[in-house]
Amino acid sequence: MDLLGKSLLELKQLVADKKISEKEINEYFLKRIKKYNPQLNAYLTVNENSAHLPLAVKDNFCTKGLKTTASSKVLDNFIPPYESTVTERLINNGFSVIGKTNMDAWAHGSSTETSDYGPTKNPWDTNRSPGGSSGGSAAAVSAYLTPAAIGSETAGSIRQPAAWSGVVGLKPTFGRVSRYGVIAMGSSFDCPGPLTTTVTDAAYLLGVIAGKDQFDATSSSIKAADYNQLLKNKNKYTIGISDDYFDGVDEQTINKIEKSIEILKKLGHKIKKITLIHPKYDISIYTILQRAEVSSNLSRYDGIRYGNERNEFGVEAKRRIMLGAYTLSYGYYDAYYKKAQKARTLIVNDMKKAFSEVDFIVAPTAPITALNLGEFEKYPFFGEVMDQLNEAAAVAGTPAINLPVGLDNNNLPVGMQIMGNYFEEEKILNLAYQFEKETDFFGVIKRGIDNYKD
Amino acid sequence: MFKPVIGLEIHAELKSKSKMFCQCSADYFGKKQNSNTCPVCLGLPGALPVPNKKAVEWAQLIGKALNCRLNRNSKFDRKHYFYPDLPKGYQISQYDEPLCSQGYVEINQKKFRIHRVHLEEDTGKLIHSGVDTLVDFNRSGVPLVEIVTEPDFDNAEDVKRFLEELHTIIRYLGVSDADMEKGSMRMEPNISLRAIENGEEKRQQFELPAYKVEVKNINSFRFVKQAIEYEIERQKEILERKETPAQETRGFDEKKQITYSQRSKEEAHDYRYFPEPDIPPMTFSREYPDSIKVPELPAQKMKRYMAEWKIKEQDALVLTRDINTADFFEMVISKCKVPSSKQIPNPNQSIANLIINKKIATTMPVEEFAAKAMELLQPKKTDEKALYILINQLIKTNPKVAEDYKKGKTNAVMFLVGQVMREMKGQADAKIVREQLENELKKR
Amino acid sequence: MKKSKLNKEEILHLAKLSNLTLTNDEIEKYRKQLEETVEYVENLNELDTRKVEPTSQTTNLTDVFFKDGVENKRGLSQNEAMKNAKNKKNDYFVVKRIM
Questions:
Q1: Whether the predicted pLDDT of B283 surpasses 90
Q2: Which of B177, B185, B157, B162 is nearest to B103 (CA)?
């Protein structure tokens, strides 16, 4: 049977109908991984024992008995003795982890180049970065080395690689999905979420992993919606556009987004201009708070109970640890950390105000399409600017999705994001589904997969 | 002249069933090393803390018992430092919003102020052996209440009495074993000296000395006293040389009874506290503190024993030092129905005496103890006829006493009372014996 | 926010607080990059936060606890706890003697 490009739910149906066995599906993907992973480096660890419907999982989710490194040599041989809540829920729902995907070490970065195990290559152009930090997950989905993947986002780490690799990527509301067992980066920002080939798969996976977890005190007790059920509603929405989010964005990207906005209009949605606090402030807020949390979260890696000593930390981790220690240290706390916390309140209020006027904010996911490997070094903060359009939703803790909206002249995917209000993932997914039905993402996902024939 | 300025930090492990932020047993004592952990208290990658409700309530109970204000808003913070017994590289503690603040403990009409009471997690245990330090994380994450006093003490004796009272209070609340041998209560005095000139304090009262010496982890009241006394002398010598003692942390050598320098604090002081992002803040309603019920505390109990049962002050104090003794005493009282009589004007005091003097073993069950006490405290039946014969016999054989008595040495009669009581093997009422003796002596 | 030029001593202090050992090259590199970042984030001074409360978390959750004594579903055996350690002795984790 030709499995190439089948969505996760299609595969699930085939298994349910006994048209194919889970074993055959695993063999199929293991074969593809063997064939294409050497050139893409999307997976760090492959689970040959995967027995159920396979999913790729970013290497910062603890998987019991399966090596978990967060792409850092510090955790070179770490075999977790426990399962993260997300992977446990996936396993309990009949999935198995076929492999752990490459990422920026500790999720520090937007290119997957800070991985201690070498960069992942963008399946659209292997000289380019797939984005990051969930670059391995995005590339694995894009090249169909898995039907779907789980990533995590602190600020852009799902949306931006989804944009650059041309797949669907959903960052849920902070607290919608448990962080228990996810190697912490920025604890007040981290959100696990799915990367998929269809909106339906994203909605389905969110349904599986969302919901209160007794082991994560910050997980919300608001009940997860029946996301798939709500997809097919033909609701009409008001969509907000902020000019600041097109500032300095590449011309071709702007064109694709504008074309997509026209399609949304055609579908009966209203477009409204809004103003938001400029994203340049989001960068500052995010940088201060996230570095502080990073410096704290990485303190546990002392090489005593597991892993290697602290001198194994890479350049980026050390840099972040140092800055975090600085902003929290005696005499600087109020000037940096406290100030950023207050500015964070302004962003939260700004987003709430926006969502009292509009249902969504639509914007480019990234200012440019995929950079060449090594190009990031030219940008300040090692590419934090690549994430600047993602940071408002990260700082506010609101949900957003990336959808492919075409290819630029270099045949590289362009991504558009739909940002929504707190816990309104079902609305975002509904609009995304309408868009998918109308455009089929302009064939981007299919073309990406076709580049990697069986 | 110098006046000591002493403040205290006291840590008490709570005896909740679970640890502070995970469901591992808080009872780590005697378990195989590293057999009482989970991803949370071992600080594994990705593990998250969830606070134990009971530990929060118990910290508030301690706060209320120490007359603190229970804060409406409270939160946890991360306190950062590196040490092998601290698995996460930070301790979850409380910084600027503790559960309780501004209390006091009153001892002998002196008030010692409590600065704050907060909740945190204990560390693992280190064993130094040869060239190695071994780490056991069984204790990691056990709830720890930290009580911080104001620097209100100026002598070691007050400190000792304060700590004894605090220890008694915590034991009364039933929230901690406060067992110092096992390390479940640990004390850290900080000591400095303030210069006084011509009886006037050189600096203003509220201004603290420019340095502070902290003595770490002492586990007996006596040692705290010795450490403070040693520090006062040591610092006095330095100050008299016109030097300033170093701001530092010192340890206490129990054998030599001296303190010794452990580490200087300038570097280590930067704990980089920030709000624990993994734990949502805590909020408490205005009415909430009323729902925290503080049992009768030793000082109140003591007052009640004196007022209600007319127990002597010193005895009431002794009886209330330990909650088990006090409970035992009260149960015996409730079971012993002894009427007051001429011989036993206050049976409660007599029962108190029996317990304090260990006349009957207090290890036996309450019922048994009560029965024995009743027997001992029953008014003695006096065999009047036998007494009459005995008295006359004794007066005859002791003519000197009779003579002395007649000469006005009325106390001489006490010798005969003793003789009678011995002959009657205690089966007589001493008062009756004396009355009868005096009657007979007067007849002569 | 004060404009601060970071000096080498400050970098060494931060490294010590962070339990990191840096080479001379690293010290200079991080000094420059930290300065660059610190300069960038100065733009927050353009935002008026005088009447604003700080945000530590965006969930609006409060009072999340567990009940004392509930079943421990996550306990690790001694073997599981020790398995990933490089240095161990008699089921203890081992570090170089520190006192």
A1: yes
A2: B162
Q: How is chain A split into domains, by residue range?
A: 8-450
C-alpha to C-alpha distance for B261 and B215, rounded to whole angstroms: 9
Q: B114: pLDDT confidence band, cut at 50, 70 and 90?
A: very high
- Quick check: helix, strand or coil at residue B112? strand
Confidence of residue B394 (pLDDT cuts 50, 70, 90): confident
- Tokens 């780590």 belong to residue: B28
Do A187 and A221 form a contact (C-beta atoms < 8 A)? no
CB contact under 8 A, A218 and C83: no
Q: Which residue has the tokens 């009580």?
A: B147
User: For the domain C1-48, what is the CATH code?
Assistant: 1.10.20.60
* Cβ contact A376:A369 at 8 Å: no
For B403-425, the pLDDT digits (tens) are 888 888 878 888 888 888 777 76
| B12-66: pLDDT as tens digits | 999 999 999 999 999 999 999 999 999 999 999 999 999 999 999 999 999 999 9
pTM of the shown model: 0.92
Is A64 designated active site? Answer: no
Rounded distance, CA A127 to CA A134, Å? 18
Mean pLDDT to the nearest integer, A210-233: 95
Residue B97 to residues A243, B58, B101, B120, B231, Cα–Cα distance (Å): 42, 17, 9, 13, 32
Give the C-alpha separation, B297 to C48, whole Å: 51
> Of the given ranges (A253-267, B150-164, B229-243, B409-423), which has the lowest mean pLDDT?
B409-423
Task: Indicate the helix (H) or strand (E) that contains B412.
Answer: none
Spot the catalytic one: A6, A12, A50, A58. A58
Q: How many CB atoms lie within 10 A of CB C3?
A: 7
* Contact in structure between A238 and A384 (CB atoms under 8 Å): no
Band of pLDDT at residue B435, cut at 50, 70 and 90? confident
Mutate to test the interface with B, among C60, C73, C76 (most CBs of B within 10 A): C76
- Nearest residue on chain C to A289, judged by CA atoms? C56
Over the stretch A364-403, which tens digit does the pLDDT of each residue have?
999 999 999 999 887 766 566 778 899 999 999 999 999 9
Find the catalytic residue in A157, A178, A219, A295.
Answer: A157
Tell whether domain A8-450 is in CATH 3.90.1300.10. Answer: yes
Taking an 8 Å cut-off on Cβ atoms, the answer to whether C54 and A338 are in contact is: yes
**Is there a contact between C75 and B37 if contact means CB atoms under 8 Å apart?**
yes
Distance CA B122, CA B131 (A): 25
The conformation of residue C66, written as its DSSP 8-state character, comes to: B
Closest CB to A342 among C20, C40, C52: C52
Cross-strand partners of A61: A182
Mean pLDDT, residues A268-295 taken together: 96
pLDDT greater than 60 at residue A314: yes
Residues in chain C: 99
- Non-local (6+) Cβ contacts of A292 within 8 A are A324, A327, A328, A337, B274
Rg of chain C (C-alpha set):
23
Dist. CA B324–CA A157, nearest whole Å:
60
> How many Cβ atoms from other residues are within 10 Å of residue A2's Cβ?
6
What residues form DSSP beta bridges with A404?
Answer: A415
Tell me the domain boundaries of chain C. Answer: 1-48
The stretch B155-162 carries a mean pLDDT of 95
| Sign of the dihedral through C-alpha B318, B320, B324, B329 | positive
Mean per-residue pLDDT of chain A? 96
Residue A257: which of A399, A398, A403 has the closest Cα? A403
Listed range (A251-265, B106-120, B152-166, B249-263) with the worst mean pLDDT:
B249-263
Largest CA-CA distance found in chain B, in angstroms, rounded: 100
Q: Do A216 and B50 touch (CB under 8 A)?
A: yes
